[in-house]
Structure formats: structure tokens, C-alpha cells
Design goal:
single chain; 263 residues; Jelly Rolls; 17% helix; globular
């Protein structure tokens, strides 16, 4: 009996030790192990500025059906006028090169977006200027989308004066962030845009190259705003949710294959 009792006791002790070993493996790291674990975790800034594009979930939706301007309206209200022409699947601002006043007005989507991935193609006239906006809101007393919306610049860099300054060149976050490389195609050719905005982080892609990235509301963003003309603009870049906009900058411009998906 004593031998049986001793054998049982040894078996129980072995099981207890085994359980302790298993539970010990699930304990959080201590001392140097904890420091090592923390060192391997990316910082918030590193996560925000990663070269990897944000996660893209949701189905693609065509913002432009290629036949008419269903889903769009003129900034400030009303139906877009005849200066905005739809022909052969292309949206075209049909104005003379020497026009100095807005004729079509800025276009904005009926729907508003916060986190999204936008794709489109644009072509600009010689010496032309236009833009793609997001975060646009219609504010009483304001007549154009750029007073609220953040702009990805559309430009003929070679012939337009804004092309001489990196922060206002094609693909830039207008007057704030310059492209890191020149991915622009010659006038007369379409340029493909990919604009990704998620939780305040934005990426500008042009012809397959990521050329601009920034974090809205970051210390760097706020500094640049304070040093720019936007410092005194009460409503500029204040709205995370807003309309997508296409600019009438009094120059002929073409858009096609406009689509979006929510993130």
C-alpha cells in the first residue's frame, strides 16, 4: 500500500509540474524579455507612414457612368451647366483656352466619403490647371470647392507657372506637400490617379507611383497649414467626411474611369 501511495503521489507531482510548465509559457515577458518585445513593435508614426497601402475593403462603385452626370451636382447646388460635356465615356470641361471665368463650376458628388480609395484618369490642356478634391463641404457664402476641400493638383507642369514650384506641381497636395518623384505623362496623355484616405492618412498615387503621403492633423500637417495661405481659411481641411470634387479652373480638362470604394 505504501508503494502504491508513493507512486500516486509521484504521478500527481509530475502532472502539477507539467501544468506549471505549460502555464508558464503563456506568461507575459518579464525584464529583458519585455523590453525586447516592445522594441519589435512599430511606433504609431511608423505605422502611419508605412509604404504599404491601407487595407482596401468594400466594392468598387462607378462615380461616373460614362453617359451623364447622374450622382454629381454643381458646387453650391443646382444642375451642372452645358460646359461639362459627357461624350464617348469621357467627362470634359468644354471651354475655350482663353476663358478667364468659371463657366461649368466645380462638380461634386452627391454622396460624401470619409475613408475611401478613389481612382480616375485625367488629361489636361496645354498650360492647363485643375484639381481633384476630397473632404469638400458646401458652406454658405463660399463659391468654390477649394475653400474646404484638400486638393490633388492637376497641371501641365511644363507650361503652367505652378509647375515651377514643387508644392503646386501635378500630383501635389496643393501648396502643402510636393511629389517625391516625377511620374507625370506629357500633355495629351491620360494620367491615372489613385487617392487613398483612411483615418486621416492620405496617399497620392500617379501612374502607379506613390508620390505624396501625409497625415491630416499631425504635427507636420499643422505646421505646414500654419505657414501657408490656408492658415486664415476657417473651413479648409476641417471635415473628415465630405464630397469628392472636380475643379473648373477655366481650362479644358478631361476625366474618365472614375470609381471609388469605401474603406
Amino acid at each position: 500500500m505504501k508503494r502504491k501511495s508513493l507512486g500516486k503521489a509521484m504521478l500527481v507531482a509530475a502532472n502539477v509540474a507539467l501544468l506549471a510548465g505549460c502555464n508558464g509559457g503563456a506568461q507575459p515577458p518579464q525584464g529583458e524579455d519585455l523590453a525586447t518585445a516592445n522594441d519589435t513593435a512599430p511606433s504609431t508614426e511608423e505605422a502611419q507612414m508605412s509604404n504599404d497601402a491601407p487595407s482596401t475593403e468594400g466594392e468598387w462603385v462607378n462615380l461616373f457612368n460614362g453617359e451623364n452626370l447622374e450622382g454629381w451636382r454643381r458646387y453650391g447646388g443646382g444642375t451642372p451647366n452645358d460646359a461639362w460635356v459627357v461624350e464617348d465615356g469621357v467627362l470634359f470641361l468644354n471651354i475655350d483656352d482663353d476663358t478667364e471665368e468659371m463657366t461649368g463650376g466645380d462638380l461634386i458628388t452627391e454622396e460624401q466619403y470619409e475613408n475611401f480609395e478613389l481612382e480616375l484618369e485625367w488629361k489636361i490642356s496645354e498650360g492647363g490647371n485643375s484639381g481633384v478634391f476630397y473632404g469638400v463641404r458646401e458652406i454658405e457664402g463660399q463659391e468654390v470647392a477649394y475653400e474646404t476641400g484638400i486638393e490633388m493638383q492637376i497641371l501641365d507642369n511644363e507650361r503652367h507657372v505652378d509647375g515651377k514650384v514643387a508644392e503646386t506641381s501635378a500630383g501635389s497636395c496643393y501648396a502643402l506637400y510636393a511629389p517625391t518623384q516625377d511620374a507625370l505623362r506629357p500633355v495629351g496623355e491620360y494620367n491615372k490617379v489613385r487617392l487613398v484616405v483612411e483615418d486621416g492618412r492620405a496617399e497620392h498615387w500617379l501612374n502607379g507611383q506613390k508620390i505624396v503621403e501625409y497625415v491630416i492633423g499631425s504635427e507636420d500637417w499643422n505646421r505646414r497649414i500654419a505657414e501657408s495661405k490656408f492658415a486664415e481659411w476657417e473651413h479648409f481641411a476641417k471635415y473628415r467626411t465630405g464630397h469628392i470634387g472636380l475643379q473648373d479652373h477655366t481650362d479644358p480638362v478631361w476625366f474618365r474611369n472614375i470609381r471609388i470604394r469605401k474603406l
